[in-house]
Design goal:
12 strands; 345 residues; two-stranded antiparallel sheet; binds S-adenosyl-L-homocysteine; 10 helices
């Protein structure tokens, strides 16, 4: 499609080079590109009308060319534990969510990459209606910019663990991460960003090749191919060992952390034999395991987390087999902001 039939990405999806090209085409001096870029990516000002350091005629030109921001904040819900859940509306009326989780000095933002999700983990609300569409770069970038503006400070960590499967939208996700980590933007350290994925091995290799310097989390949930297929029916990668090997390769190549995420569900994947399989698949590789007791979800009231005792026994079993492991606690449950509770409704 040619430039004039397709609307350009909203401002938040534009690189500095894009803005320099825009300024050149409009006969604007080059320093204006840097100024626009900084206003958006570093100062998180998405509404050009407020950027009064730019002449009015220029702001009008920018708004005409790039259109309105990609997102609009509809609602911010605050949990008793300080967790904040943001509901954003998109230009086509679709809605997405982002969550900010405070923990000591940390402020972690959980960002969405798609509307809906094709992976359909049976225990996750985000996949109930399948995939609706990919998010654009601007729609991903703006989630962080809006949360930063709302907090009045830059969050400390980003996890790509909201709605959607980031590696099935890898180009937009990669572009968003490059904007967040740009020194003239928010200058976010890639070491404080984690991309979470259900697969595939090939996409994980591609992410390693993109050389973003981010950490990787693999959503495994099953310790053998059969139980993983039952829990993650839409998984783009069925083979447990392939995923674990790809994660280990990622860690080796990028010198960043690779972790395995494993949601514990009573009676389904929480028995000691599952822990033994998992330990066998991981042993000898530099991979950390995060055990996450299931958060209840409305669409599957039959699924429950294990007792604390059983969860500990699972963790101990891994530890005895020399696998490094953490047993996680829950946040933001009272506002449906916990992992797996982000839904389209
Ligand atoms: N599609 C990507 C990103 C989504 S984040 C991925 O699969 O990695 C997915 C993570 O959310 C899972 O690894 C799991 O840690 C968490 N999760 C999803 N549903 C959950 C639930 N009901 N309870 C606890 N954690 C859940």
């Amino acid at each position: 499609m040619s430039e004039d039939t397709q609307a350009p990405e909203p401002l938040a999806g534009q690189t500095r080079a894009d803005l320099e090209a825009f300024c050149a085409a409009e006969g604007l001096p080059r320093f204006r590109a840097a100024q626009i870029y900084r206003a958006v990516q570093a100062e998180c000002r998405l509404d050009m009308e407020e950027v009064t350091t730019l002449p009015l005629s220029m702001r009008t030109k920018i708004m005409e060319h790039f259109g309105p921001p990609a997102t609009e904040t509809v609602e911010v819900q605050v949990s008793d534990d300080g967790t904040r859940k943001y509901l954003f509306a998109l230009h086509d009326g679709k809605r997405i969510e982002a969550v900010m989780i405070p923990e000591g000095k940390r402020k972690t933002v959980c960002v969405s990459s798609q509307v809906g999700c094709p992976v359909r983990c049976i225990f996750c609300a985000s996949g109930v209606e399948g995939l609706i569409r990919n998010l654009s770069t601007a729609e991903i970038v703006e989630q962080l910019l809006r949360v930063t503006a709302d907090l009045g400070e830059r969050p400390t960590n980003i996890v790509m663990m909201g709605m959607g499967e980031p590696l099935l939208n890898i180009d937009a996700v990669t572009d968003a991460i490059r904007l967040w980590t740009d020194k003239d933007g928010l200058n976010f350290s890639p070491r404080r960003i984690t991309v979470s994925t259900a697969g595939t091995a090939a996409r994980i290799d591609r992410l390693a090749g993109a050389d973003l310097g981010v950490h990787l989390a693999i959503s495994l949930h099953g310790s053998d191919d059969k139980s993983r297929a039952a829990l993650v029916p839409g998984s783009p990668e069925g083979r447990v060992q392939q995923l674990i090997d790809a994660a280990a390769r990622y860690a080796r190549r990028t010198k960043r952390d690779a972790t395995v995420e494993y949601v514990l569900i009573a009676g389904m994947n929480d028995q000691l034999r599952h822990a033994e399989y998992l330990a066998d698949a991981i042993r000898g590789r530099h991979i950390h395991v995060n055990l996450i007791p299931l958060n209840p979800v409305k669409h599957r009231p039959d699924l429950r987390p294990p007792s604390i005792r059983d969860a500990r026994a699972f963790a101990d079993c891994l530890e005895h087999r020399h696998v490094s492991v953490t047993l996680r606690t829950q946040r933001g449950e009272d506002i449906d902001a916990a992992c797996g509770q982000l839904a389209l409704e």
